[in-house]
Amino acid sequence: MVHYPHRHLLGIKGLTPPDIELLLDRADEAVKISRQREKKTTTLRGLTQINLFFEASTRTQSSFELAGKRLGADVMNMSVGNSSVKKGETLIDTAMTLNAMRPDVLVVRHSSAGAVALLAQKVSCSVINAGDGAHEHPTQALLDALTIRRIKGRLSGITVAICGDVLHSRVARSNILLLNTMGARVRVIAPATLLPSGIADMSVEVFRSMEEGLKGADVVMMLRLQRERMAGSFVPSVREYFHYYGLDADKLKHAKPDALVMHPGPMNRGVEIASDIADGPQSVIEQQVEMGVAVRMAVMETLLVSANQGERA
Ligand code: NCD
C-alpha cells in the first residue's frame, strides 16, 4: 500500500499533491463500489466510527454515515446542540467520553475554527474535520476536486471562479488551498464586505464583478450566502445581492461554454443561484453529492487501514 503519512484529516493545509492524488484515486475506486448493486465491503469491518456533530448538517453527516456503512464499519451518530457557554469544556468533555468508548475514527463538525484540531490532540483515534467554523472543510474540497477531475480530466491549469460569501466559507478556504496545491488557477468574486481580510495572501485573483471574474472560467463554484453567520448587514438586500452576484443565464455566458456549475449545498435558490441554472445542463451539483460519499470512503479507508498497519504514532 502506498504510504499516506497523516493520522487525521484536519484540513487541506499540510497535504501534498501526492497525498491529494492518492485520496482522489481511491475515491474513483469507491465510486465504482457505490454504483454496484452490492455496495458493502469489509474494509473497515470491526471498526467503530462516531459522527460527532455540534452543528446541523444534512448531506455531510449522511454521506459520512453511508461511507462508513459501505466500508463495513459500525457507525454511530451523535448530534450535540451547541451550548453558547462553556463551549470549550463541553467539547473536550464530550470528546473524552466518546474516546473512552474506543472508537477508531471521530468525524467532527463544530462552529468554532480550530475546535476539531483541539479535539484531535485529546483523543487516541483518527479525527476527520467535517467543518470547523469558517476555517476548513477538507472533504468538501476533495469531493469538489474529484468532480472536476472526473469531468475535465485534470486539475492543473483549470480556471476556477469561487463566487459569493467567501468571508464565512470554510468550503472556499479548503478549495483555495487544494486547487492552488494542484496547480489550478483560482479566482474569487465577491463584494468587499464578503471577502476575508487575508485574501490577498491566498494566491487568488480577486474580482468584484461577476462578468469580469467569470470570463474564461472552466468552473463556476457558487457559495451559499451564510446569513446565519452574519452579525451585521453584509449585503444591502437579497434582491440586490442576486442582481450583482447571483448566477443566472446572463452572467454564466461570460464563463466558457462548457463551464461546470457547482454548489456545495444547501442552496438558496434565487439568492446566489437562479433555479434554472442550478437544474440546468451545466450543473454538476448532484454529481458533487455522489462524489461526497466516495471521497469520504476514500479518506476513512486511507486513514484507518494504514493506521492499522502501525506505521504511525
Ligand atoms: C457547507 C458547510 O456546511 O460548510 N455545506 C456542506 O457541507 N454541504 C456549505 C454551507 O453551509 O453553505
- How many helices? The count is 11
The biggest beta sheet is recorded as: 5 strands, parallel
Compounds present? N-carbamoyl-L-aspartate
Instruction: Give the C-alpha Rg.
Output: 19 Å
Record the strand order, biggest sheet.
Answer: 7-6-5-8-9
What is the N-to-C order of secondary-structure elements (H for helix, E for strand)?
A: HEHEHEHEHEHEEHEHHEHH
GO molecular function, one term: aspartate carbamoyltransferase activity
Family: Belongs to the aspartate/ornithine carbamoyltransferase superfamily. ATCase family.
Keywords: Pyrimidine biosynthesis, Transferase
InterPro entries: Asp/Orn_carbamoyltranf_P-bd (IPR006132), Asp/Orn_carbamoylTrfase (IPR006130), Asp/Orn_carbamoylTrfase_sf (IPR036901), Asp_carbamoyltransf (IPR002082), Asp_carbamoyltransf_Asp/Orn-bd (IPR006131)
Describe, in short, the structure shown.
The protein has 313 residues and is of the alpha/beta class. The protein has helices at residues 17-34, 59-70, 87-99, 115-122, 138-152, 170-181, 210-214, 238-245, 249-252, 275-278, 285-308, and strands at residues 48-53, 74-79, 105-110, 126-132, 159-163, 185-189, 205-207, 219-222, 260-262.
Structure notes:
The protein folds into two domains: about 10-135 and about 290-310, 3-Layer(aba) Sandwich (Rossmann fold); about 140-290, Rossmann fold (3-Layer(aba) Sandwich), CATH 3.40.50.1370. The mean pLDDT is about 95. It contains eleven helices and nine strands. Helix 1 (about 15-35) packs across helix 5, helix 1 packs across helix 11 (about 285-310) and helix 2 packs across helix 11 (about 285-310). The protein is globular and about 55 Å long. The chain has about 325 residues and is α/β, with parallel strands linked by helices. About 40% of the residues lie in helices and about 15% in strands. The longest helix has 24 residues, at about 285-310. The protein has helices at about 15-35, 60-70, 85-100, 115-120, 140-150, 170-180, 210-215, 240-245, 250, 275-280, 285-310; strands at about 50-55, 75-80, 105-110, 125-130, 160-165, 185-190, 205, 220, 260. It binds N-carbamoyl-L-aspartate (NCD). N-carbamoyl-L-aspartate binds near residues 59 and 226. N-carbamoyl-L-aspartate binds near residues 137, 140, 170, 171 and 264. This is Aspartate carbamoyltransferase. Pathway: Pyrimidine metabolism; UMP biosynthesis via de novo pathway; (S)-dihydroorotate from bicarbonate: step 2/3. One of its GO terms (biological process) is 'de novo' pyrimidine nucleobase biosynthetic process.
